[in-house]
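Input set for joint prediction.
Command: fold jointly, output tokens.
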Amino acid sequence: MNRQVTVVENILSANDQIAERNRATLDSNRVFSVNLMASPGAGKTSVITSTVAALQQDTRIAGIDGDLATSIDADRMAAMGIPAVQINTGGSCHLDALMLNKALEQLSLADVDLLLVENVGNLVCPSSFALGVHLNILIASVPEGDDKPYKYPGMYQGVDAVLLNKIDVLHAFDFDMEYFELGVQALNPGLMFMPISCTSNEGMDKWIGWLRQQAADYLISLGETGAIR
Amino acid sequence: MNRQVTVVENILSANDQIAERNRATLDSNRVFSVNLMASPGAGKTSVITSTVAALQQDTRIAGIDGDLATSIDADRMAAMGIPAVQINTGGSCHLDALMLNKALEQLSLADVDLLLVENVGNLVCPSSFALGVHLNILIASVPEGDDKPYKYPGMYQGVDAVLLNKIDVLHAFDFDMEYFELGVQALNPGLMFMPISCTSNEGMDKWIGWLRQQAADYLISLGETGAIR
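tokens >
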């Protein structure tokens, strides 16, 4: 048996065990949690700030932001008045369950309804490391091109929804929406797919409505009723 | 001593040894070689096809393309009439020296002046794996945003030039060129920085001229004279 493969398997198994602990911690605090993944510059932080703006009147939100360096993104969350924890991965290309575990310790989870986790900008590695959150969302963007589901199947497969951001600049790019969605659906038949723009706000109502419904369903699954507070 | 760290160090050391072998193979065939790295969708393949179009009249070019899946990009190179080898990394987030080594075996290097290597779309991992090529180029793009040098310093540091692609859509994005270049120069004082557009061709003359000069300098360093043929 290949020794290196064994090491990788052990690391993933350890990660999954911590992810399960994260999930238990989140559930015991009734915190609905969302992991946002994307290529660098697709608009993760913009989606988060737009989502915070739409929900923060009636929802207690917290943010955790993963970056190789800087606290630019967590600063943007904190500027909106929500508790935000920055994880500097120190060169690592993804968040893992242990990093999230340490970040969760820095939040007062009893005071949080919705946790938004911004992963490291990367269309490959984050898909291999479960965090223990309730939803995994992939944010694509028009300027990246319509062939990305075909070229990065590991990331596009197994997510709970795909947002296609920056549709306000569709006119400036040679982007075939039908070809893109075909790739998404081939990897995830029936997946929720939402074209949006954080600049023009087009499509944001549908995303926010869908997210509210997911959060409500989550509370029902825990034996509670009612929408996200 | 940490056992996991040792394993990683050994892997990198093995990679570097193979990278040195690749360099020797390339030099013995007088093949000037360029590794193009970028975020997914920044335009690596477009830069390559534009470069091939500009140089193929008087330069024998070959391409090696790394992707998780599909041969879309190598097909685009082959469609231009140049020998192209596709490396499907099978999920790996970067090219490494061994992958390049195997791909080099599939090319008739004696008939190649310029080798263009397209890395996996990723702003993190490829920077850790030397391939043995002569130039490492980073292609950024306007839609990614002007904060990327600050957020992905490992990738921006240590490259030989930065191309900023898609400047034809600058008007559609809130992109501060000065802030971007400040980040690039802070990490690499004096680095060659070239804004370009593969759509409008703006800036391409400068890039092609610079690349020709680098190739000529390379031949001189080998004890030969003359521009790239």
